[in-house]
């Protein structure tokens, strides 16, 4: 049974607050183990990576086989059926088109004081994408991480993907090829993150590491942050659906289940202004759960973290949504645009009846790497910006320095930074000669 | 004596690599103490903050005096002289004008498949800026943090600034007022970061925390990251000056010293294609060090971490600069634009002879909060983007879903995410009826 809440009930505020702060993830403390792995890789490079891969992935590598060869990649890609390949190509094309629009513009101008100012964007030189092995090895995530990097203009783009016992998902290699990845390494875990951050004999270090992973990967990313850039540490997936009565309960049930099936820690919430509709959706979820392949996972998620919240009106729905700041927000109402204007904190919004969240996971175009755990209050999904950095530019003329330099000198003096002031003064004195 | 390197020397590569990896910061391990302070503040709110402020800042607060009153701020601002005030106003106006140009645009379009796509930017609801007390209490940093937040449209903007023994820098309060800060709290250290992140009886929690601080503040920011957004953890300041022989050695010496005087861990490097000029700058540094107020600090920085690197030509200078990825890069050469095009990794570039770095610290317009410790390879200075987040938007029509839905269904199947596929299929089936 999911949580049923009604905003008219006495205990609502306490129940909603409890839902908001509910701890869904019990991350094991692997930090000490990860620190040791990183130290090993820094000290012994390829030897350590090979040894750790033998231990954790039961796979025997040599420096020559750490990366897939071109022939190996071609052989795996040949196993991909035409329909899967076409679907990946359609997705890649749409993701590329969306992200190309995100490229920010450089700027340069001269202001009233005669100062030339501006900024310039540039790509990171090299990026590494982590792709989990096994069940969570999603080709769609390869596209979502690699394409923004390529659009940004990253020079060298590599993937680290463990292949336990040598097993690899051909679709992952096909996605890597479609996205233009340069090299795919058969390594995973904290040892892969360490190798990407610090380099080894065969693996050149990168400047930025993105992509999801297990507790070891997350802890390793936290530890190498600063040495390299990282993306967010993603938590379990979430969806909030705001729906009025004019919806097919079965559609909404499937949308809720499409998050629940990811993970027992996923959270699916329906907010509706119609209690009968809420009950109908819950009933539809139960019916679908009977036949769903991942019913054990989806059922546990829905039972433990799922919720149906009945509100007085859509304004109240928007207010609750803003407190939740959901990763995915589906607006299945008559005027989704009006409601979108009120729901200000969300990673991605899906508007109207014909936009199931799953479209955004694969082919919509926007990125599916999105802020979880209420972090949409202050952060954004993955984008080309994650693979770019900005350099600010300033160029004074003698006239511009004469106009604004004395103020800089004054402030430097007030902060007791004498050399700062003198570096301006020395130049002003030349002008006054 | 700073390090003298020449790229023609045999041992150059090793010496340069050593300079690059030189550890300049010995951060004390205060993590356990910080964890305890955060737990205290979460458990006991204002009481804990008041107690910790008594202990660390020798200041007796009550819930009513945790924040400065309007009258107190007005009284402090009245102490600021006209010249200081005018300088702050000039700086604030220029910083605001620069950052207003950074505001990113929303986008919305309909693509060939009939899908409506786009994104929307919005400000974080509340931000907290940390301002150190004592010597490092820089009014310029108040402007550099607060103005981008206000330009971004942050709803509630507060400052936490410790006032040891009750002492406050009137210029800090004046800068806060000019920047439009709503509230200034008299608290500091890890307890201030905890209060901003989790809230207390009198301090409402914020969504984003920025600003520099000591080891306790840095450790606390790391710990609350995820609960709130944070800016980068800044390391000691750095400057790289690339200068040819046609420069006044004294100007360049002052530019180098304006970083060195910040901190004994600061690093100032000159790269020049003329060995005689390099020696002349080093001699000028020594002369200036005799009279500089902060000569103990600046002298230690220059002796331990300063460097003069002689290269064959400016192309080599650019290549070394890209390996250093400096926070501040000054290009004092005949054609600074051409050299800027080659120096791709830098937080901020100062072009030509008339742009001492100190201009950028105060009145240039660009932000002075910049990536240190080689992180300009993958990150950018503070900007309005740090106070904004992006929500992606997607809206399918039945026709658009018919066009791209089958590919999503196919990919969901290949990833064994059945409910994802069904959520699309249920809608496609309706269309096909």
Automatic annotation (TrEMBL), chains A, B:
It holds the Pfam family Histidinol_dh. Gene3D superfamilies: 1.20.5.1300, Nitrogenase molybdenum iron protein domain (3.40.50.1980). Its EC number is 1.1.1.23. Binds 1 zinc ion per subunit. Transmembrane segments: none annotated. It comes from the Bacteria. NAD(+) binds at residues 130, 191, 214. It catalyses: L-histidinol + 2 NAD(+) + H2O = L-histidine + 2 NADH + 3 H(+). Pathway: Amino-acid biosynthesis; L-histidine biosynthesis; L-histidine from 5-phospho-alpha-D-ribose 1-diphosphate: step 9/9. The active site is at residues 327-328. SUPFAM superfamilies: ALDH-like. Zn(2+) binds at residues 259, 262, 361, 420. The keyword NAD applies. GO terms for molecular function: histidinol dehydrogenase activity. Keywords: Amino-acid biosynthesis, Histidine biosynthesis, Metal-binding, NAD, Oxidoreductase, Zinc. NCBIfam families: hisD. Belongs to the histidinol dehydrogenase family. PANTHER family: HISTIDINE BIOSYNTHESIS TRIFUNCTIONAL PROTEIN, HISTIDINOL DEHYDROGENASE HDH. Catalyzes the sequential NAD-dependent oxidations of L-histidinol to L-histidinaldehyde and then to L-histidine. This is Histidinol dehydrogenase. The lineage of its organism: Bacteria, Pseudomonadati, Pseudomonadota, Alphaproteobacteria, Rhodobacterales.
